[in-house]
Structures are given as C-alpha cells and as structure tokens.
Amino acid sequence: MKNGIANDVALIDAGGANLGSVRYALERLGVDARIVRDANGLHGAQRVILPGVGAAAPAMALLRERGLDVALRALDAPLLGICLGMQLLFDASEEGDVACLGLLPGTVRRMQGSAGLRVPHMGWNTLEIIRESALLDGIAMPAHAYFVHGYATPVTDDCIASCTHGDPFAACVQRGRIAGMQFHPERSADVGSTLLSNFLRWNPE
User: In Å, how far are 27, 36, 53, 194 from 145, measured between CA atoms?
Assistant: First the structure.
C-alpha cells in the first residue's frame, strides 16, 4: 500500500474490450495495474479487478480454461467485478444459461424492453444509494453513471446502489470483500473515478 492506496492491482484479462480503458482509468489514479491471464498471476495482489464486455458463457469458459474460476473463489484480496465482470460474480446467468462464480447469490436475468424502453440499456442513468458502504464515500446525489448492458441482477440485500431502466436493478453490490459495478466506472467521469479510488483504499472487514 502507498498513501493508503493499493499499488499491486491485478487486472484480469477475461477477453473484455474494456480492459485497456479500465487500466488507463487506474493509471490516472496513480496505479499501474498488471494484466493477469492465469491463476498464478493473482499471487500477491492487494486488489483484483475483473472487467468484462461480452457474453457470460464464453467469459466463464475462458476463466475455467485458465484456472481463474477456482482462484477467484479462493481469493483473500478484495475483488471488484465491472459490467459483465460483476454479473460473473453471481450464481448463474440466463445469458447462455451458464453457471458463474457463485460468489454472490442470485441469477442474472435478461432486461425486459417495452415501447419506448430500449434494451440493451445504454447511456447515462441515475444511481440510487440503498445502503451505506465505504465504496460509496464521497458520492453525492444525484449521481450518474454510464451503462451498457442487456442483462442485470435484481436488487437484493447485497445491493448498495440501484438504478432503474423499466424495473429497478442492482447497479453496485457488495458482500464482504466482494464488490461489483454494473456500470462502467472508467467511463463515468468523476463518479467513476471516486468509486475506483474508494476500491483501491477499501479495507473490508
């Protein structure tokens, strides 16, 4: 740790197109994250980030192929899933009817569109804080984040911030050392930068 910020951050390459943009967002916070492509790369990491853009089934297949599924379940360091990476933290996803990491209870479900309601959900939307968390320190309402997704998880006891697109869904979750952001913090301006900085300083009990 340096000035309270984790300086050994493992950024998992799970085939997501947002890998570079997340790494650049961390560089702006003074952290040079290392790219990890197998389970051995997680050794010694103070923080681990699982970004993702794409579909659940191929992403999970890649994690299993590289032994990262087992390693993530055994991880002691705080873990943050971003976008698809957050969805992979849950038990299962309807997208490809695939079993996921099972670190958080629940099933990721397809969002329902309607007249005037576009799915995938793309663009800026408003966060609503559900309960206090150190991950949300410094986030003042109204706060807006940038979303790109067609699947979402319901609002459960693990949800610390929600969003509404037709129905409410979990925008940010946290249970113990496990956290997730359905939106893209690396594309969410000051709100996203604050959230990433909070994660780098976060010391869950």
Answer: 20, 27, 16, 12
Angstrom distances, CA of residue 115 to CA of 1, 123, 166, 169: 50, 18, 10, 19
Helices (H), the chain: 19-28, 56-65, 68-73, 84-87, 189-201
CA distance 171 to 185: 11
Q: Which two tokens stand for residue 111?
A: 């969002």
pLDDT digits (tens, 9 = 90+) for 59-98: 999 999 999 999 999 999 999 999 999 999 999 999 999 9
For 140-194, the DSSP string reads PSSEEEEEEESEE----TTEEEEEEESEEEEEEEEETTEEEESS-GGGSHHHHHH
Of 27, 43, 83, 149, which residue is the catalytic one?
83
186 is catalytic: yes
Mapped onto helix, strand or coil, the DSSP state of residue 85 is helix
Domains of the chain: 9-201 (3.40.50.880)
Q: Name the stretches of the chain with pLDDT < 50.
A: none
* 95 given a catalytic annotation: no
- Residue 163 forms beta bridges with which residues? 169
Secondary structure (DSSP) of 146-157: EEEESEE----T
Annotated catalytic residue: which of 144, 149, 165, 184?
A: 184
The count of other CB atoms within 10 Å of the CB of residue 193 is 16
Known catalytic residue at 83: yes
